[in-house]
Structures are given as C-alpha cells and as structure tokens.
Amino acid sequence: MKRASLSEAVVSPARIGWLPIGVLGILALALGTLQSVVEPALPLLQRELGVSPSEGALIGNALLITGAVITPVAGKLGDRYGGKRVLVRLMGVVSVGGLMASLAPNLPVLLVGQVLQGVMVGALPLSFILVRKHLTAGESQAAIGLVVALFTGGGMVGTLCAGPIAEGLSWQWMFALPTIAIIATTLGVTRLMPHDPPIQSDDGIDWPGTVLLSGTLLAFMLGLVTVTRDGGVPSLAVGAIAVVVVALASGWVVVERRAASPMVDLRMLAKPAMWNACVLTFVMTASSGMVLFSSRSCSRYRPRGTDSEPAPPTSDCSCCPAPSPGR
Which residues form the Major facilitator superfamily (MFS) profile domain (predicted)? Predict the structure, then answer.
C-alpha cells in the first residue's frame, strides 16, 4: 500500500497557478478569432480571388471538415502522448496554415491553409486534459469555463474585426494577426505549462474510421460545390456523387460498429438526451445559416434597369426593394 502511494506521488503531475491557465485562455481567444474571420469576409475573398460563391463556401467549410475529424482523435492522442506535447504540435500545424492563408495567391493555397487551421478545434479537448491534470476538481471546472468562454469570445472578436482589418490593412492580415498571436501564446504555453504524463491505455486510435469520415465529409462538400456551380451538372454526375457519399458513409458506420475503440460511439446517438442535443444544435445552426443567407441575398440585389453595384445590406431584409432611379 505504501509502495503504491509512493508510485502515485512520483507520477503525479505538478500543480500550476493561474498564469499558465491565462496563457491557455489567450491561446483559445486567438484560435476563436482565426476561426471566425472567414465568414464575414467571404464576399471580399470571392472578389479578390475571382471565385464563385459555391467555391468560396469551401473556404469556411474546409476548416469545419478538419475540425470534425480531429476533435475525437485529439483527446485520445493527448491521453496517449501527453496533452501539452500534442497541443504544441497541433498549434504548429495551425500556425503553418494561418501563414499559408495570409500569403495565399489563389484559392487552392488558401484551402490548404484552411484545412491545416482546422486542427485548432482539437485544442479544446487537449486544454481540458491539461487543466484536469494540473488543477483540483473545483479549479479545473473554472479553468475549463474560462477557456471555452474565451474561445467563444474570440469568435465574436473575429466576426467584428474581420471587416475593419480587411479595409484598413488587407484581407491577408485577417489571417496574419491571429496567427501571430497563436505563435506567441503557444510559446508561452510551452514555457509555463509543465509536461503531463501520458496515460497508458490499450485502446487504439480508430484510423480506418477517421479516414472514412474524412472521405465522406470531403466527398459531400466537393459534391455540393459541383452540383451548385453555375451551369449545372448532368443528372448522371449528381447520382454518381450521391452514390460515392452514401458508400463512404455506410462504410464508416460499419467500421464504427465493429471497432473495439470507435472514433464515434454510435450507440450513444440512440439515447434521447443525445438526440435532443443534436436537434437543438441543428436548429440553431440552421437558423444562423438562414440569417446569413438572407443578408447576402439582400446585399446582392440590383435595381432593374441599372448597372449599379450591389446595394449594402439593410437592417431589415424583408422590406420592399427601393424603386429604380428615374421612376
């Protein structure tokens, strides 16, 4: 008994103060800012890069695809190799993606940068691992709340500041400024946050499920862009895209049901509480998407008989359009 307690004392992680947690929170703030600058600047990016609206939609969605895949994997990697070690490496990938986006001369380079930035979503579960290992139960709850609040607040900062930064400097600085902050705070985390010991586990990482989910989401997004592009596509091509997406999704479900340590536990989705959360999330996401779509539709309105530029969006998109000049 005494030997066991001595062993636990040796591997017990060091306790930390609130300064490392504050740096971790600032990192979350910078990540939330970088994640949200694209959406309000999409019309500008489409004009500067010469891409269609359907192609421009890939800029924001590329980040979401990577985030959806990396979130369940990041936690397992953090447990196996240590939360700090994995977090610092993921932030290195995010920094490379942010720099690529800030220097992107065309859409493909910007998309690659967005894909790399998508791993930022894995910072949240890794942050939770760190605070739980280095703080008491009560302190860890407050620290997790702080990190989540700052990440959400960063989303608001990015949405509000993207336009002024693009107009005052350039759209490249929308990506460069948060990336610089991420690099600086990552260095702070490396300096101030102690290493956390990895947890030995027999559960492996579901790499087949990860690959299939990535392929499903990528095929779906590319198919959506192909179907909605100007001029349309043959119905045979639409059917082929649908078959590919369904086949990949079906393969992913089969793999997840058979995996000893699945990427996503599909049995959890059968619980009523999980369904309620999924429905609520869908309603909130669909509502925000409808608001953005309506505002963009109003901003693209052109009075008939004129060649004027699109009018800026008004505060009420449901109002009747103004009459054409000269009437």
Answer: 20-327
pLDDT digits (tens, 9 = 90+) for 156-186: 888 888 888 988 888 889 999 999 999 999 9
Same domain membership, residue 74 and residue 22:
yes
pLDDT digits (tens, 9 = 90+) for 86-137: 899 999 999 999 999 999 888 888 888 888 898 888 888 888 888 888 887 7
The CA–CA distances, whole Å, from 272 to 72, 106, 265, 266 equal: 21, 45, 15, 13
Residue 45, domain extent: 15-199
Same domain, 206 and 194: no
169 and 111 within one domain: yes
Does residue 183 lie in a domain region? yes
Shared-domain flag, residues 139 and 265: no
Structure pTM? 0.71
State whether 194 and 211 are in the same domain.
Answer: no
Has residue 286 been placed in a domain? no
Please give the tally of structural domains in the chain: 2
Final residue before a domain boundary, out of 180, 199, 218: 199
